[in-house]
Amino acid sequence: MTTSYFATTSRGLEEITAQELTTLGAKEVKTDFTGVHFQGDKELLYRVNLWGRTIFRVLKPIATIKSQTPQQLFRNVQKIDWSEFLQPQQTLAIRCTGKNDQLNHSHFTAIQIKNAIVEQQQKYHKVRSNIDTNSPDIVINAHIHHDECILSLDSTGESLHRRGYRPAVGLAPLKETLAAALLYIAEWDSSIPLYDPFCGSGTILIEGALMGLNIAPGLYRHQFCFENWQDYDHNLWQNLIDEARKSQKIDLPPIVGTDIDSSIIKQAQHNAKTCQIANHVEFFQRHLVDATPPAESGILICNPPYGKRLEDTEALFPLYKLLGDILKQRFKGWTAYILTGNKLLTKKVGLRTSRRIAINNGGIDCTLLKYELY
């Protein structure tokens, strides 16, 4: 049976996520603000959760109700038969986005929805679901838009960007979803060497290794919310997991990361070991001035520090000039991508860009700069 779904993603990555969904088999794919609508069957829902690299979570809309006031929201939530989606012995969480004039606080909106659901349970079953905000069995997503509320089942639970392999992070970690998106934008594949001279906790390179080895990121997850749904198909899910494990590859080109901070390098090595790819990615402590290409050609992707205050920016001028000099002198035959949130710093690189791509990194408007190095 074909069902409508909505995959949430970072602002600016909607087109990349749409392409990823299409590759996974989604139909009627249509981008929206911070998300993508698509259609597919239950198998596709499971597959997207298992394989999605740029997606936060996948929602299954179940109702759109009028919600101009708190009272109207409460009444219309109670008109839904929640026994189709939730059993009293299951724990529950409500997550809200959006607002209107009278429903302008997400926590208050969530309480209204929760009260309507548990009162219905109490009336018909004499027992109600407990609230669990940490690891609930069932998550209801509510999005307020004007005088309507879209209610959805969250099939994912904890955001997909938390792969589970990264208990250790650097000072300014890049989300796994964004790291994967950068690799897609760079059109990197498993035949091309990859290098990051500001690797931090290793996210870009680890995501690259997972992509190159065709490892489904969802394999690192312990559970998804859809496993608690009443129509959950255990055999179908197990078949997809078995298929994913059998499709993994074993060979990769050089994937190398360096960073000046030895403690962060140890974190990167720990993260690679956690997801069992430590023998495919090399991390070294090395100052930028000593950076050398690990192959004659390849793709360099990095996210150097870019400072929040003017004095921080000025202090980084020499670093960006050095980066430009190193690229020009040592990385001929490579393609370099630099993600930065500071236009003043980009001028210090001193190289002509062949492309500029707007990227939002954790609420900061950034630019991904592409350099063809000849």
Beta-strand residue percentage: 15-25%
> Strands of the biggest beta sheet: in what spatial order?
2-3-1-4-7-6-5
Number of strands: 14
Return the CATH topology of the largest domain.
Answer: Rossmann fold
Let me know the CATH homologous superfamily of the largest domain. Answer: Vaccinia Virus protein VP39
Secondary-structure element order, as H and E?
EHEEHEHEHEEHEHHEHEEHHEHEE
Look at the structure and give the mean pLDDT.
95
Helical fraction equals: 25-40%
Q: What is the name of the CATH class of the largest domain?
A: Alpha Beta
Number of domains: 2
How many helical elements? 11
What ranges have pLDDT less than 50 throughout 5 or more consecutive residues? none
Describe the main β-sheet briefly.
7 strands, mixed
| Class of secondary structure makeup | alpha/beta
Shape, per Cα inertia axes: elongated
N-C termini distance: 52 Å
Radius of gyration: 23 Å
Oligomer class:
single chain
Which architecture of the largest domain would the CATH scheme give at its second level? 3-Layer(aba) Sandwich
Domain THUMP: 44-155
GO molecular function: RNA binding; rRNA (guanine-N2-)-methyltransferase activity; rRNA (guanine-N7-)-methyltransferase activity
InterPro entries: DNA_methylase_N6_adenine_CS, RlmKL-like_Mtase, RlmKL-like_Mtase_CS, RlmL_1st, SAM-dependent_MTases_sf, THUMP_dom
Protein name: RNA methyltransferase
